[in-house]
Amino acid sequence: SNGFLAFIRFKMATYIASRALIGYLLFNGIGWGAVAVFASSFFSTAAIYSYNLITDVEEDKANGRKAPPKDLRVLVLALAVAGFAIAFLALGGVAHWFWLAVFAIGMTYSSVRVKDMFPIKNVYIALGGAFVFLYGASPQAQFAPAMLVGYLAMAMIAFIVSLEADLRDINGDMAAGVKSIPAVAGKAAGELLALAAIAAVAIGTVLLQVVAFYPITVLSVPAAYHLGRGSHTKSQTYMMMSVILIPVVLIAMQMGA
To answer: What is the pTM of this model?
Structure first.
């Protein structure tokens, strides 16, 4: 059970699916579509990360992770089919096209070895990974400038989370030739950039008065603290939790309105 959850990256899938859920709740409101957006995003993310295990055998070995099971390709296909089926059958508008775009972005990352391209790796994860937010917003909503603000906020969080993961894995990544920002520019530079990004997104949320995004501001404090102490995994967890909590705030605000 725990092994399966680890292989599909349960925590990461929940965090990324929460980005899509934020997009839906902001621009479509509470409804069953929110469940479909979250579920389809969760399954597609699990498929993408499971496929990444297949292509990253050497990197994961260098970082002390277990080898993936031999039948993992079947799991990847099953998760992808489940994600697309939910997006296609349960959501209207152009949502299924957005889902396909999100899935293609994720699979391309592993297929063409984006991680070997400096500094494209972290930028790709940030801008490409945040696209799931637009997928969440897409079922019924028309494009609005506020979508761009939300997208950029999610991209900034994705950039921070990717930097923290690379800081955690820096020794193994350097040995495997991964061209992350910390692996190329150094640990100190990676930590400084992550701290600057945390400060920027925390302050920006307050200045723009996006109340629903205040969990980012609150949890950026312990995230920055642990990052400064070199606890990259704890810092990453706080930043991921800030995103997971935003849908809770949005639902509470919309139900109380």
So the answer is: 0.91
